[in-house]
Design goal:
There is one protein chain. Helices cover 54% and strands 15% of the residues. By secondary structure, the protein is α+β, with helices and mostly antiparallel strands. The protein has a three-stranded antiparallel sheet with strand order 1-2-3. Helix 1 packs antiparallel against helix 2 and helix 2 packs parallel to helix 5.
């Protein structure tokens, strides 16, 4: 789905964790932002919030390189991000897009 891939590209281009961008991804993937996720984002627990977007049975691989670029693979779909949370969000968006 193009909208999910477009959002994934925006996430991949982000230079730092962005709670609003993660909320936008949650709305796209879950239909709304769970209260628990809002509490995590308020506490700046970005990786925990991002993990809520990963499909339940999906295998997740994170590779944090020396240049600080993170590669996430979710359900066989790879994405990069400036932070682990952003890489997880982008990969989750791309994984859902691949299912559609």
């Amino acid at each position: 789905m193009t909208a999910l891939n477009d959002l994934a590209e925006r996430v991949e281009r982000a230079g730092a964790d962005d709670a609003n961008l993660i909320r936008e991804a949650a709305t796209a993937l879950l239909g709304s932002v769970p209260d628990r996720m809002n509490r995590m984002l308020a506490a700046e627990a970005y990786e925990s919030a991002a993990m809520m977007l990963v499909p339940e049975e999906a295998r997740v691989i994170l590779n944090i390189a020396e240049d600080q670029i993170t590669v996430a693979i979710v359900a066989g779909t790879q994405s990069c991000g400036a932070t682990p949370a952003l890489a997880l969000v982008a990969a989750s968006l791309r994984a859902r897009s691949a299912e559609l």
